[in-house]
Structure to design on (147 residues):
């Protein structure tokens, strides 16, 4: 992205994150600008790489089914590769991110029930190289701009 985003760009992106199917006329009305301005901004944001695509979010990933948890993992440096390989085999693992701070990784899990989540947490805790975990279960998503 070669050009910095201004306030209008950020507001337009936020509206699209809430509803990528919004009509340009509706976006223009909400932003208080001309429809042609929205069309031009969208074109520029797409060509610059700020917007790389539009997507559909399925109900199963939006918290309407099952339970989601964020699991912090401290991992033995010598066993990191093996731990990541083992975690990647868990179908309920949605994301795994290396993070800074007290823990090394943040895993996002989605399980169909709290019983399955409990079993997953036990399974993860038993992986050779996982030193300790700390889990938080998602109760409600207040803002979600991730597709």
């Amino acid at each position: 992205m070669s050009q910095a985003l201004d306030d209008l760009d950020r507001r337009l992106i936020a509206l699209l994150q809430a509803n990528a199917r919004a009509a340009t006329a509706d976006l223009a009305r909400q932003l208080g600008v001309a429809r042609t301005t929205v069309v031009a901004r969208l074109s520029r944001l797409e060509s610059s790489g700020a917007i790389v695509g539009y997507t559909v979010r399925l109900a199963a990933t939006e918290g309407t089914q099952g339970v989601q948890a964020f699991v912090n993992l401290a991992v033995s440096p010598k066993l990191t590769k093996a731990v990541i390989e083992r975690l990647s085999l868990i179908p309920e693992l949605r994301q795994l991110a290396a993070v800074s701070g007290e823990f090394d990784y943040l895993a996002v899990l989605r399980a169909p029930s709290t019983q399955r989540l409990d079993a997953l947490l036990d399974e993860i805790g038993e992986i050779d190289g996982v030193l300790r975990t700390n889990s938080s279960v998602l109760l409600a998503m207040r803002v979600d701009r991730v597709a």
In short: The mean pLDDT is 89. Strands lie at 67-75, 93-98, 105-111, 130-137. The longest helix spans residues 35-48. The chain has two domains: 7-48, 59-137.
